[in-house]
Amino acid sequence: MTVDPILLPIPETLHSQRLTLRCPREGDGAAVHAAVLATLAQLRAWPASLPWAQDTPSPAASERWCRLARAEFILRQQLPWLILSREHGTLLGACGLHHPDWDAGSFAIGYWLHRDHQGHGYATEAVQALVAMAHHKLDIRQFTIDCDARNVASARVAERAGFVLEGRQPLPAEAGADGEILLYGLTLP
Q1: Residue 80: beta bridge partners?
Q2: Which residues, in sequence order, are bridge partners of residue 85?
Q3: Is pLDDT of 32 > 70?
Q4: For residue 70, what pLDDT is reported?
Q5: Helix axes 59-75, 29-43, angle to 10 degrees
Q6: Would the pLDDT of 121 be above 80?
Q7: What is the dihedral of CA 143, 91, 115, 56, to 10 degrees?
Q8: What's the Cα-to-Cα distance from 81 to each of 6, 103, 174, 178, rounded to whole Å?
Q9: What is the pLDDT, as a whole number, of residue 105?
Q10: What is the DSSP string of 75-87?
């Protein structure tokens, strides 16, 4: 990439049919904290994919994450968004474009949903919105999603969003369980 990524005009808010994706900001910590706490048991089931969920966050830690996430967005180090209901503004979860390789034109995509909002296609819709924005506005062509092989719901999100299973690797020893990570990829023209 010839342009310094920090100079790229990346929208802080995206809209899809049912969702608003918005960069975290000061004051979002309480809602993020409540959503994480409500879903913590499910999130902890996937330590290799979600190592941050292994500790119970405090309200201050959640607010700190929101502020750091915004700073990383501005610096183009990571591009995180909160997933909100477009109709009601309810926090449904979070997603993001992570581990940018600006020169290669690639991102990893991550996502999680509040337990009460899983199974409605929101994660797939959020992933599709991220891919569309990154491809059309940033000319990003390669995307990856990694998930624990036992996390069938996350694998389904990748597949419904058009990603193809490209490989498997053993779970890292620190994950504390035997198993595999599924490696999904999507390459656009």
Answers
A1: 96
A2: 19
A3: yes
A4: 98
A5: 100
A6: yes
A7: 90
A8: 17, 22, 28, 31
A9: 94
A10: HTS-EEEEEEETT
Q: Is 107 helix (H, G, I), strand (E, B) or coil?
A: strand
Neighbour tally for 106: CB within 10 Å? 18
d(CA 132, CA 140): 9
CA nearest neighbour of 38 among 130, 101, 98, 113: 113
Please tell me the distance from the alpha carbon of residue 11 to that of residue 16, in angstroms, as a whole number. Answer: 13
One-letter-per-residue 3-state SS of 38-61? HHHHHHCCCCCCCHHHHCCCCHHH
Instruction: Please choose, from the candidates 168, 171, 170, the residue with its C-alpha nearest in 3D space to the C-alpha of residue 182.
Output: 168
Task: Give the Cα separation of 50 and 42 in Å (integer).
Answer: 10
150 within 8 A of 114, measured Cβ to Cβ: no
Write down the residue that tokens 């034109």 correspond to.
Answer: 105
Angle between helices 122-138 and 152-160 (to 10 degrees): 40
Torsion of CA 26, 31, 33, 39, to 10 degrees: -150
Nearest residue to 90 (alpha-carbon basis) of 116, 57, 128, 129: 116
Q: Give the pLDDT score at 169.
A: 93
pTM of the model: 0.94
Cα 117 to chain centroid, rounded: 15
